[in-house]
Amino acid sequence: MRKAFISPSKYVQGEDELFNLGYFIKTFGESALLIAHPDDVQRVKQKLEYTMEKYGVALIESGFNGECSRQEVKRLQQLAIEHNCSCTIGLGGGKAIDTAKCVAEGDALIIVPTIAATDAPTSHSAVLYSPEGEFDDYAYFKQSPSVVMIDTTVIANAPTRFLVAGMGDALSTYFEARATANSYSNVNAGLPCGANGGVGKPAKGTKAALALAKLCYETLLEDGAKAKISCDANLVTPALENIIETNILLSGLGFESGGLAAAHAIHNGLTSLEGTHSYYHGEKVAFTTLVQLVLENASTAEINEVLQFCVSVGLPVCLADIGVTSVTNDELRNVAQKACIPEESIHSMPFPVNEEMVVAAIRVADHIGQQYKQKGE
């Protein structure tokens, strides 16, 4: 059996870690192309100026337009050539990070998230969009980022909602990895290497990835509520540090090398409902994790444990919590159709799944979530 595991070459997190960014730039050369939204640059400008001066490196600001499109990637690659940049830095949220991945194509890449809202920073994949923001394609590269650097002080001073959304994304990691392992399905770590046009061989997940995914879930239960309080107060505590690591590293390695299953596929289907559009990825994934547990007939104790966690940190547990106050069966069938297309990860479940099963699981998970909230009130 062929197995695969993929990870960044180096992961480092700590308070005021951005002061050390120049050190990592220096390992590649004298200058870096900085891909970041102007607002994110402004948030950390003092630290960037300090690290440039201390280590004698230059940051070439790119004027990133905010969209990870083929056109923007091509423009930025040309800019890097013109300025003889020795590495690429993606600083900020998902679009800047994905654009940096596409520009670097798997080489000399430093990722600096300013929020802990998703597990994308560690992965070797990116999502491409049209200049107008419509989905274009997925891109996969030969390796994960060279360095993932997390300044926990910056994360602590970002809105708490981002951290909580990251916990929602991380919540699905163990349950999807467990389903993938039980079905012996392939994982993202074995996907094609799009940057060089090569085709990778399918691979299963490793025991290491499943263990990290389980640790991800256990840490959420242990430190999630405490970390939220810390972030509300803009303070770095051990609990917040643990949840930042959980949201970014444990979840990132767990999803890519452990596998995705029903939760993310149903999330993708739910995006067809207009009410969900103002909610973050991880907020929707929290609810679809409950849907997956219903789909696989998980124990009442396990479902209640997840419900208790979600409510304790403020994650959605029913459709109304993600902006869907009413939904028709036809609309849910459309959600299910999108979730069940042949290439979706729902087929990594350890049993065949059809559209009717998905519709039923969404309805029941919604009802269970509503009931749980009512009891709490």
UniProtKB/TrEMBL annotation:
InterPro entries: ADH_Fe/GldA, ADH_Fe_CS, Glycerol_DH. Pathway: Polyol metabolism; glycerol fermentation; glycerone phosphate from glycerol (oxidative route): step 1/2. The keyword Cell inner membrane does not apply. Its EC number is 1.1.1.6. Keywords: Metal-binding, NAD, Oxidoreductase. Coiled coil: none annotated. Residues 8-152 form the Alcohol dehydrogenase iron-type/glycerol dehydrogenase GldA domain. SUPFAM superfamilies: Dehydroquinate synthase-like. It catalyses: glycerol + NAD(+) = dihydroxyacetone + NADH + H(+). Belongs to the iron-containing alcohol dehydrogenase family. PANTHER family: GLYCEROL DEHYDROGENASE, GLYCEROL DEHYDROGENASE 1. This is Glycerol dehydrogenase. It comes from Paenibacillus apiarius.
